[in-house]
Amino acid sequence: MAEAAHRAWDLAGRLGTIGPGSRRGRRFGAMGFGSAIAFPRGPSFGERWVRIGEGTLLGPSVSIAVGLGPDEPLEPPDGWVVNVGDRCNIGRGSSIVARHRIEIGDDVTTGPNVYITDHNHSYADPGRPIGGQWPTVAPVRIGSGSWLAVGAVVLPGADIGRNVVVGAGSVVGGFVPDHSVVAGVPARVVRSLVAGAWEPPLRIPCTPQPARPDDWPA
């Protein structure tokens, strides 16, 4: 019976994957060729405001939610609130929670349980419960080629450059320059690319690899 249960779960994983041509895939504002949302998917709504590029994978239990609820009226000027680029890999259990604008570039990779949001609770009025105050919003951008390690949190207003490494468990809420490494709570720059070399130097030498997996040596 245990083996039968495992086989049934494997079958559900294959049949439950959402692709651009599936009924649920067509709920999205756009989903490019070769993209997929793995089974089981996390709680999601507002898919019509989400665009996903080509060759992008959203891992198991990834949640994408647009709006404070499924029925919140939104009128984004460009017709989208969340844009995920080409060839991205969003790690299992991660959440993208938006109601204003989250833009994720191409070739972005995240570890598991990464949280990205463009809005947050407000507490300006001390006489009202925080949960009853209207949230503040600020756009979020994650540059192409970046990597967000396990458990990273990206807050409203974060502007992360290209080819940035965000350390595990870091909380990012501001500008991060291209080709840098940030870590901590709040995150700060701990390594930068200066004149083609990392400062401070990497402990393990980096061997350049081809940019695309198709070009990797056998």
Q: Round the Cα radius of gyration to an integer and report it.
A: 19 Å
Helix content: under 10%
Order of SSEs: HEEEEEEEEEEEEEEEEEEEEEEE
Strand order of the largest sheet: 1-3-6-9-14-17-20
Number of strands: 23
The domain count comes to 1
Distance between the termini: 40 Å
How much is the average pLDDT? 90
User: What name does CATH use for the topology?
Assistant: UDP N-Acetylglucosamine Acyltransferase, domain 1
Largest beta-sheet details: 7 strands, parallel
Strand content: 25-35%
CATH superfamily: Hexapeptide repeat proteins
The helix tally amounts to 1
Structural class: mainly beta
Ordered list of secondary-structure elements with their pairings:
Layout: H1 2-16, E1 30-31, E2 36-37, E3 50-52, E4 57-58, E5 63-66, E6 82-84, E7 89-90, E8 95-98, E9 102-104, E10 109-110, E11 115-117, E12 119-120, E13 136-137, E14 140-142, E15 147-148, E16 153-154, E17 159-160, E18 165-166, E19 171-172, E20 175-176, E21 180-183, E22 188-194, E23 197-199
Structural account:
This protein has 218 residues and is mostly beta strands. The chain has one domain (18-215): UDP N-Acetylglucosamine Acyltransferase, domain 1. 7% of the residues lie in helices and 29% in strands. It has one helix at 2-16, and strands spanning 30-31, 36-37, 50-52, 57-58, 63-66, 82-84, 89-90, 95-98, 102-104, 109-110, 115-117, 119-120, 136-137, 140-142, 147-148, 153-154, 159-160, 165-166, 171-172, 175-176, 180-183, 188-194, 197-199. The strands form five sheets. A seven-stranded parallel beta sheet has the order 1-3-6-9-14-17-20, with no helix packed on it. Strands 10-15-18-21-22-23 form a six-stranded mixed beta sheet, with no helix packed on it. It has a five-stranded parallel beta sheet with strand order 5-8-11-16-19, with no helix packed on it. A hairpin with a 4-residue loop joins β21 (180-183) and β22. The longest helix has 15 residues, at 2-16. 28% of the residues are buried.
